[in-house]
Write a structure and sequence with these properties.
- The radius of gyration is 21 Å and the shape is elongated.
- 63% of the residues lie in helices and 10% in strands.
- A two-stranded antiparallel ribbon has the order 1-2.
- It is mostly helical and 123 residues long.
- It has one domain.
- The termini are far apart.
Length: 123
């Protein structure tokens, strides 16, 4: 719960001084602003998609709560994900793959933007 609050609380407000940190990479001097690192950390919020998916699935209904209570388990997010994997594995796998590709692609673009500014591709 505390980790979830930390992920949702981190943001970079506009108007704040954006400090730049230099790094050496491939013989070049790269300068990454703090907002790049904060934005990459904010990409961890992608887990909210899975929480929303499990919250509104049929495995989190009152009927599922009653059935799970009879067996002695709790119908929480983990139960909903396991049940979804059991009933439609390829659908959930496709959603997981798509979300991870997009979020990791955005993270790579964040950090590669500084490298592409160093090289002139007009040859």
């Amino acid at each position: 719960m505390a980790f979830e609050l930390l992920i949702c609380a981190v943001h970079f407000p506009p108007g704040v001084k954006n400090t730049v940190y230099p790094f050496d990479q491939m013989g070049k001097r790269l300068q990454y602003p703090v907002s790049t690192f904060v934005t990459a950390f904010m990409l961890l919020r992608v887990y909210l998609i899975f929480r929303m998916y499990t919250r509104f699935s049929v495995y989190r209904s009152t009927f599922a709560d009653r059935c799970c209570a009879k067996v002695g388990i709790e119908a929480d997010m983990v139960f909903a994900l396991k049940s979804s994997f059991k009933t439609s594995p390829f659908k959930l796998l496709f959603i997981t793959f798509l979300v991870s590709v997009v979020s990791l692609g955005l993270a790579v673009r964040l950090f590669e933007r500084q490298v592409s500014c160093l090289y002139d591709d007009t040859i």
